[in-house]
Design brief:
Length: 472
């Protein structure tokens, strides 16, 4: 009889396509067998998951870990600890660090840091600003490039020079060059020209606080987002380069996405938890000011966002985990443009989504698809995101019925605060397993820095179809 390294007994396994009562058997780092629930099996270690749900670990393809350069906010160890406590087993880092990974040498430096310090599996999204660097960077096993169309005004972070591009010609060149690598290009859509005009209006009227900042970014029903996405979709169509849209939040973007997908364009999109649970309530913005801002998502967008999450127009949920210190948020009460924008969420987004299951907004199968199966598929992680024999044993065991109150006291992120404090949430992550190793259990991070490996893509990385039109 086979002796397994670990058997998770008595739980209900959840995949994107359904639920089964089964025991999950692991050898070394992989899922070795799905056993009949209660079957006799020899195991070196067992975890009793009776009454619990066993999910594929979440894959967060968009997280700001702040190292190197901004480790007063967060570092790789604290970010991946918070992620482990939230049921996340793979986290992709964003490139707005110092120095940004926009050259091979800088990327290599970052990969070496993650190799030593990450508790969970990881990758780094390289900054797509210097096209002649793309082929060599792609060869390092990254899963995506990232470009910000936004450049900060009134502050120098989080959208500092060296990672942002808003000239359309330059963007076209970046799409062409990323297309040669076959990897997807993640873009933060933003129309800087429109934003400059809009914010000048606010400033001339003397409106500068967090509320003004919130309204400026959502002005004219999301015009800065909608126009940027129109440009990006047209460039995507021209080049054929896979586009992954970040920060989906307006009905206008959702409609454009529907049309582009219906036309067969290679576009995927994500929504971030702040658009569903935080920035979509004006009362919260009045109460928390800049602490609630990533962005204000006017309330009438909430229902279209849930519809798009359920019907597949939005492919996945990633966190946009963006920790900033209280000192960096506090100026927002008088000047929203001075406060660093972004909100932390990696520790709580899975519980918030499980709570949404209880509220009837989404099914647990769809949650698994959005946080695990789809990110693995879109970014080519062939052995992740599913509970199948041969896959990496990346697992989150959750108690769907237990509830807890989110509070600053339990935050593992270095900043020590969360904008979700005070929310009571039904759905508790009890255990997180990365490639067969328990990294989080019963309130304690037990994983070790350096256990995490780079989650390299397979099956993407070369062009699968020609562009729809030529470049001449
Ligand atoms: Zn982000």
């Amino acid at each position: 009889m086979t002796t397994y390294d670990l058997v998770i007994r008595g739980g209900t396994l959840v995949t994107a396509s359904g639920r089964t009562l089964a025991d999950l058997a692991i050898i070394d780092t992989r899922i070795a067998a799905l056993l009949e629930s209660g079957a006799d099996a020899s195991a070196k270690r067992t975890i009793d998951a009776t009454g619990r749900h066993v999910l594929p670990g979440a894959i967060d393809v968009h997280s700001h870990h702040r190292e190197p350069g901004f480790t007063h906010k967060e570092d790789i160890v604290t970010a991946t600890s918070a992620a482990a406590a939230g049921g996340v087993t793979t986290s992709f880092a964003m490139p707005n660090v110092q120095p940004p990974p926009n050259t091979l040498e800088r990327l290599d430096g970052m990969l070496a840091l993650y190799d030593q310090r990450s508790i969970i599996d990881w990758n780094v999204n390289a900054a797509a600003t210097i096209p002649d660097q793309f082929p060599s960077m792609a060869s390092r096993g990254i899963a995506a490039f990232k470009v910000f169309m936004v450049v900060d005004t009134g502050r120098d972070y989080p959208h500092m020079p060296g990672i942002g591009v808003h000239d359309h010609g330059e963007l076209l060149g970046i799409f062409e060059a990323v297309g040669e690598t076959g990897l997807p290009l993640m873009v933060h859509p933003h129309d800087q020209g429109l934003m400059s005009h809009i914010e000048q209006g606010y400033w001339q009227r003397g409106e500068r606080d967090a509320r003004a900042y919130a309204r400026a970014y959502s002005a004219y029903d999301g015009i800065i987002w909608d126009t940027a996405v129109a440009v990006l979709l047209r460039i995507q169509q021209a080049t054929g380069t896979p586009l992954h849209l970040l920060h989906t939040q307006s009905s206008g973007v959702i409609e454009q996405l529907r049309r582009a997908k219906a036309a067969g364009q290679r576009v995927t999109a994500e929504v971030n938890p702040w658009a569903l649970f935080l920035g979509n309530d004006w009362a919260t913005i009045e109460r928390l000011g800049s602490y609630a801002l990533s962005y204000y998502v006017p309330e009438h967008n909430t229902e279209p966002l849930w519809t798009a999450l359920n019907d597949g127009t939005i492919d996945l949920v990633s966190t946009d985990h963006a920790p900033h210190t209280r000192d960096e948020k506090e100026p927002g009460w008088t000047d929203g443009w001075k406060a660093h924008t972004g909100t932390p969420s990696t520790q709580f987004y899975v519980p918030l989504l499980l709570d949404a299951v209880h509220r009837g907004l989404i099914s647990i199968e769809r949650v698994v698809e959005l946080v695990a199966t789809a990110p693995a598929r879109v970014f080519g992680l062939a052995r992740k995101g599913r509970l199948e024999v041969g896959c990496d044993a990346d697992i989150a065991i959750v108690d769907l019925e237990a509830d807890f109150e989110i509070s600053d006291d339990i935050v593992l992120s270095k900043i020590g605060w969360t904008p979700y404090a005070g929310s009571r949430v039904r759905g508790v992550v009890e255990t997180t397993i990365v490639r067969g190793q328990v990294v989080y259990q019963d309130g304690h991070v037990v994983g070790q820095p350096g256990w995490g490996r780079q989650a390299r893509p397979e099956g993407i990385g070369k062009r699968e179809q020609p562009p729809t039109s030529s470049k001449e």
